[in-house]
Amino acid sequence: VSEHRRVVVVGIPGVGKSTVVERIIALRLQKGRQTIVANYGSVMMEEASKNFNVKSRDEMRKLPIESQKKLQLGAAAKIKSLPDEFVIVDTHLFISTKEGYWPGMPLEVLEELKPTNLVLVMTDAETILSRRTKDSSRSRDPSTIESVERELQAAVSLLFASSLFSGCPALMITNETGRADEAALRIISAIESS
Ligand code: AMP
Ligand code: MG
Fold first, then answer.
1. Nearest ligand, measured from the Cα of 42
2. Which residues are within 8 A (CB) of 111 and not within 5 positions of it... i.e. 6 or more apart?
3. What is the structure's pLDDT at 194?
């Protein structure tokens, strides 16, 4: 039985996904376990900056969809080729593009990536909205409580769609403010093989 884990961690912007992922790395390290994180956007950016002359992630998602699709599939192949035992794929179920919401894991990406687990990090819309408002490092699209609620609903639908297509279990975890460790521990204990 293969012990390899390719854990796709998703969550809408502002949910605290990166923080939870950092805590997973730290908590596993305390037990001498290594975790590799593949940030999907960063893997795509490497190619995007070479071939499409984009300077930021927020510029990348404004590229024509055909260009983003090439980058997206290339990134899946790159991540799949990582030999490590425990790989976390930090990505998105959908990306807000010029043409509308676009799936981060269409069928061909799921087939290429072959995840073993799907994790959706969630929290309430009010918290997400206030985190987005505070994060001035990004050029996010403007949001409201209503738009965040809709994104959360879309995320849950797409999580189950991805689960259905890949046959992977889908885990939903709440990341409450100041409790990222708790969220990380719940993910670890659900996924680690004993
Ligand atoms: P971040 O907010 O740091 O996670 O960066 C996310 C950015 O990377 C998104 O805005 C997208 O442009 C890109 N990205 C991440 N995952 C995917 C994916 N699966 N498919 C397409 N683009 C992605
Ligand atoms: Mg992030």
1. 1
2. none
3. 57
In order of 37, 112, 125, the CA distances from 22 in angstroms are 9, 25, 22
Separation CA 14–CA 130 (nearest Å) = 8
Q: Is 64 within 8 Å of 36 (Cβ atoms)?
A: no
Q: Which residues line ligand 1 (CB under 6 A)?
A: 13, 40-41, 44, 57, 60-61, 68, 72, 91-92, 95, 104-105
How much is the pLDDT for 86? 96
> What's the full length of the chain, in residues?
194
**Spacing, Cα 30 to ligand 1 middle (Å):** 29
Q: Summarize pLDDT for 68-103 with one digit per residue, the tens.
A: 999 999 999 999 999 999 999 999 999 988 888 999
Residue 4 amino acid letter? H
Strands of the sheet containing 117-122, edge to edge, are 36-39, 86-90, 5-10, 117-122, 170-174
Strand partners, 103: 94
Q: Does the reported pTM lie above 0.90? A: yes
Structure tokens at 40: 């999907």
Count CB atoms within 10 A of the CB of residue 68. 20
Identify whether the C-beta of residue 163 lies closer than 8 Å to the C-beta of residue 169: yes
Handedness of CA 185, 190, 192, 194 (dihedral sign): positive
3-state secondary structure of 100: strand
